Amino acid sequence: ERSFWGAVLQASPKNPCLTSGRLPGRALQPPEAARPPTRPQNSKQRHNGMALLVAAAALATVHAATTRVAVNPTTAASEFLGLGTRPRVRALLDANEKLRRLQLQGFDFPRIVVIGDQSAGKSSVLEAISGVQLLRGTGVVTRAPIELRLSNSQETTCKASVEADGVPGWEGPCESVGEALNATMRALPGLKPSQRGARRGITEDIVHLRVTAPGAPELTLVDLPGLARVATEGQRPDVPELTRRLSKTFIEPSQSIVLVVCACNADLATAEALRLAAEADPDGERTVGVLTKPDLMDPGTESSVQDILRGKVVKLERHGYFVVRNRGQLSRNVTQGQALTDEAQYFSTHSIFGKLAQRGRFGAPALAQYLAEVLQDAIARDVPEARRLVDSKERDVIAKLQALGDAADVDPSKKRARLVRVATDFAQMVQEACSGRSDGERGLTADVLALYRGFDADVRSRAPSRNASSYSARVREAVAETRGREAFYGFPSAQVFAGLVADLVDDVRAPAERVVSDVRARVLVAGRAAAAVSARRFPALRKKLEELVGDVASEKYEAAKDSVALFLDAQRHPFAQDLLVSEEPTPRPSFRPQSRPTSSNDAFEGQVDFVARQIDRYFGIFATRVSDVIPMSADYALVQNLGRDLALRVADAAHSLSDEAVSQLLTEDPDVARQRSELRDELSRLLAARETLDDYAAGEVVA
Description:
disordered N terminus
């Protein structure tokens, strides 16, 4: 059988790019940032098959146009095909595909995502690259993301496979891919009608299509449903919104390379696909433009393509645009290989396109080569970071699994031992919290110390003020009520002083009781937190531990309240050593009869002033005493002793329970079992990812 390469050469004898390897016009190469790095090729293999030779022919055209050096077509074919057959290239894409299939949470791996307005020719572009017929029709034909994986094969035939979750897999010849995709789409769980006559919608379920063919580039692309502006007959009314939302989901990750397909005869300024790409990639660093249907442009408007390629319409900063003419715009009866030949001849002989300086930007093979290079470089750059993320995530998952512990034991003796361990851990956590050794966030000790400082400030804010009219009136009233023979001698009554001190005690009783209650509340919170951590797998045990800490805290609380009440009752009887030896002068007794009202009033005012000054002095002593003793009593009963007593109570309960009671307490929470299962699945995927990355790294070292 005559090789197709010879057929391509004979099909267009006047085509300068196929005969001399040169093109008319100035060869304007894409910017340095837009060109993927070149890789030396040494392969001299020969391959059979139409797709192989067509790709080689197209590369000869591209290479000649961009270098202006005569190229031997056979050599160009061999060099291009070396890109697809290099073992490390395939290993790189295989590793990336395996990592993506693992669906690791929090990871994003490089991929090429194809978006475009409805009927812009997305599927035709993918058909030209893959060499197989995909879904066809009008309206929204692709109703689920299709991940297309192209792989070079040493065999002479093209084979394909289709897979999707919840749908039986398919393998067969590439000629039947379209039918297999249609059948898979109809069977997707997300597209099954919930009732008869239900309208067609869009699903996020991914269909995996793998094509292995001789000469196929090592490449992976994701084809998304076309962006619909309006819902057509038989479609759900929200299809336009669904297509936009799905496209945004796939193109927003920073690792996604966005391939935007637009028709040449459409207004790029209003293209929905370009608008979405600009939102996801404002700087245009990861967007590649593809212009289709150049043969449908109005005569005389073809030169506008040059403005698009030069970025004068909608600029794509790094990668720019490519122009392709697919079989969809030609004839359904023409084979894909013949369509590529006709495409190359069309561009090279066209009166406008054949003279454009950006000649290396025309044709599906040129696009395929560029995408392969861009994707491979992105994946290669991502491998070290992927390994670091996998290792970090693996450590995190292992720590979470260790915190959850193993599944519940079956043997009664082991169950009791586990109960003792959990109870001991719980008591130790409470003791550490009470002693101020808890790690991490603010602990119990810090909370209760803040309460004590607040109580001290509250007590001292209640200091009597002689400038306050209400307090002055209270002192005068107390002095007046107790005036008897003491007034005749000019001595104030001790009952006046004691009564006013009792008022001070009553004024701080409520804050004192409140601070004890607040300390109890903080202790209960710390106990519940410790129970939630140590026994979170066992709801019944967690509840039991919370009850235990509640019982112990209640007992300690009652003891603390009694102690505080006794202390405050004692404070109603004034006593202080420094007052007994006070240097404060006492009013001098007067032995003269108080005959005049003025002298009597003077004595009364003197007594009032003396009592007020003594109360001021005593309050300082009283406030310090109360601010120290009451927190000390609460802390001793509710904080210092609680951890020790709780540990004894928990240990006694753990050893005294029956086997049946132990089994009931160690009944595991279903949510914990589910979390453990999910974490184990995630760890399994992470280990598989690490193995994949290790295999690739080992291959790189060998290579």
